[in-house]
# Entry
Amino acid sequence: MAKYTLKRFGMALITLFVIASLTFLLMNSIPGSPWLSEKSPSQATINALNEKYGMDKPVIVQLGKYLENIVQGDMGVSLKMQKNRPVIDIITEMFPVSASIGFFAILWATLVGVTLGCLAAYNRGTWIDSLLRIISTIGISMPTFVVASLLLTTFAGANEALRIFPTIFNSSLGAKAYVLPCFALGLYPMCYTARQARSSMLDALGQDYIKTARAKGLRNTTIIFKHALRNALIPVITYLGPEIAFVFCGGFVTETVFSIPGLGRYFIQSILNRDYPLIMGTTIFLAAFIILMNFLVDVLYKVVDPRINFSEGGE
Amino acid sequence: MSDKIKRVKFGSMQPDIENLLELTPEDFAKASEEQKEGFITDRKSTSYWQDAWRRLRQNKVSMVALGIIVLFILFAFLGPRLVPYGYDQFIAGSENLYPWHYSLEDQALLDGVSGNDAERLETALATAEEEKGSELSSKEIAIIKARIKSGKLDIGEFKKENGIHLQLFGYSEAELERIENGEHVFPHVFGTDKYGRDIMVRIMIGTRVSMLVGICAAFLVLLIGATYGSISGFAGGKVDTVMMRVAELIYSVPEILVVLLISTALKPALVAFQNSGGGVLQRLVGLMGPNLISLFVAFGLLYWVTMARIIRGQILQLKEQEFVTAAKALGANSGRIIKKHLLPNCIGQIVVTTCLQIPEAIFLESFLSFLGVGVSAPMTSLGSMSADALKGVETYGYRLVIPALILSIMILAFNLFGDGLRDALDPRLKK
# Structure
């Protein structure tokens, strides 16, 4: 187990290193220098600036320096959006908002998804199953921005009677402000989880140990919750990793639509404004977060399902 | 009690007696000599694809989905030829049309009513001023305005009394007059936007962009994934381990972040390239737009992993079989074995995975276009149209609803068709 964890961790570090380098090299390859904005400074000024920021050195040295700085938590300063403010400051200010919305979205998506999936599996072939299948298929076919903007126009739009929720996110409103963004963000993962939970629950219910449990005369609820559900949850846990990535990247859309002052919206704005240090910093930060979460999910997966072998050849 | 059909509990081991009892003695009758003779010749041999097509045809949902896809293809590729408007053509005088209109007489009636309101306000203000003898304060004006407003005609009631109905499709007043004069004017079926561009044509072009992106990206994934996966699976050993480690690494990269990053970084480079000369490549870049190319690059770099994994798994199974040994004994080299013997044997999986890749690519394209980093103007896309519509959504809700709906239906159709195709091509997977 320890060896497995260590191996996964090593893998996560390598991925992170690759992303950080890729980000740096891509940003470096963009033609034009950051000093050429409205007025063109003299060559001497450019040289001085290049020297100050270490940009006169070879790219590989700059990359090393950049990585070293990141490890120390220094991601440079914003060039345009909030001039000269450290990127790490901006991230620590905005990330909690995104994280709280993402957390609630994942929470409801998983809980409701698993419940509906199990309900469909247990009532296989009935109208409940068909209905849930229709809903989940439609749910995974609607892009997040479609759901978000339709929700916004319906429940925060011109219609007085339906205007229950605020148009612009306001965290002081409490739960009310979170309902629409969390719903929009969680709909796709919820439907996906439901589909997965249904098929794995069906799989589990067809196993021999369920028959054994029935033969023992156990109550239905005991069989469902104690025997089948536990095993059916394992594929749901594996989906948690991609789900986290989806929710945090989908946050770009919901935060834009609902005007939430989170990191996702800011990231998109920094891309549109070409604020390169901010783009780099946010990309690396979000990637690190997602990779770390993936690592935790991987480890959790092995903890929950001890049947998986940890030997080298195990796939 | 006895004639009631007992519902068999799920997971029960009881045999299903009801169905067994439906067999009649005739079912056990001996076959006649004729039937025996015809047994072999009556059956035509069916190829793999015929068999799959037969299964697919039985799946009603997929057939409906296929029909919808065909309709969308016609809509996107033939539609713009039939409509006499261009997607980037500003039609003067037809700005901000709704997808519905009033006939000229009805419009005149309605104008008369709303004109009345303003006149009434003016006269009321004038009389009030006369009474007071001096200029009115803003508060007094507001009170009078409110009074006029509350006494205003109920438009809905007025419409009902005069039999005014909304009519389908958008026309500007000038266009309605031209129709009166016997000219033929093509309607703005979905209305127009604030620059007077016909929304239906824009949606057709947007659908076309989405479809092209989906299909091209899926082929790119197919090409890279199939090559990588088959080499990895066929080579085995250390090569396989290293190649799969790399694939795993790419799999754990958050794709959307990298896609955004690549599109940011590539755009200036591509724009510079596009302006560097008038060669074929430059024109191609100009035609597709820098953002779309970076989207393809990102897709090609990141999304092939699933395909590669699936094909590797198949190849690992297949390469141990006798026909591969036979091919080797006949002196075929690895490339030939992969191309001629192994890949054709996993064609079902390849087709299904490719087909399910299309909606994923459409999803991603619309996501990026919505955020403003996808297809660049003047080219349009369903995602960027939705984003534009969001600004005026309270008055012009249809501009958001139509592209959003079309996008969702398109993805749904591709998803359902892909599912059906999987069941048809690989019945073992069906649950």
About this structure: The first helix of chain B runs from residue 17 to 20.
